[in-house]
């Protein structure tokens, strides 16, 4: 029976969480800017049809609904960013470990990445380098 490997999405916690926070910051900032622009464009028209005594209730509802919508969106963005960064952090972890083994003089296997991982070109170049190192280490017959 084949055992499935448990997936750890936070391989390099510091890098991945930092990337996620920066990406979320830019995304939320952009969303707030667009929302503010829409508000400035639409509110003058809408406010003509809302009675003055209900204006504070309407503004409160707009703000409340915006915040209630923002929380799940932030969670979705964070989840997707961690999944995407996992496709980079996993290969980086594997590449660093392989390079450390080569530096210690160990015989290493080629780097095999998962189907959806990034950095396959870099892994391929490192595999070529490993091949050259293997060839140089082989004793010459003569």
In short:
The chain has 142 residues and is mostly helical.
pLDDT averaged residue by residue: 87
Written as H for each helix and E for each strand, in order along the chain, the element string is HHH
Largest sheet properties: none
Rg over CA atoms, rounded to whole Å, is: 26 Å
Distance between the termini: 48 Å
Shape: rod-shaped
Structure write-up:
The mean pLDDT is 87. The chain has 142 residues and is mainly α. The protein has one domain. It is built from 3 helices and no strands. Helix content is 72%, strand content 0%. The chain has helices at residues 13-47, 55-103, 120-137.
Question: Which short descriptors sum up this protein?
Answer:
single chain; 142 residues; mainly alpha
Topology summary:
Elements lengths: L12 H35 L7 H49 L16 H18 L5
């Amino acid at each position: 029976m084949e055992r499935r490997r448990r997936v750890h999405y936070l391989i390099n916690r510091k890098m991945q969480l930092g990337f996620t926070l920066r990406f979320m910051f830019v995304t939320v900032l952009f969303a707030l800017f667009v929302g503010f622009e829409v508000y400035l464009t639409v509110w003058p028209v809408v406010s003509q049809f809302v009675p003055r005594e209900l204006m504070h209730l309407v503004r409160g509802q707009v703000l409340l609904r915006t915040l209630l919508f923002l929380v799940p969106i932030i969670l979705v963005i964070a989840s997707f960013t961690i999944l995407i960064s996992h496709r980079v952090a996993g290969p980086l972890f594997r590449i660093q470990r392989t390079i450390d083994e080569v530096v210690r003089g160990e015989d290493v296997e080629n780097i095999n990445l998962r189907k959806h991982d990034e950095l396959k070109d870099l892994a391929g170049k490192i595999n070529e380098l490993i091949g050259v190192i293997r060839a140089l280490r082989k004793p010459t017959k003569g």
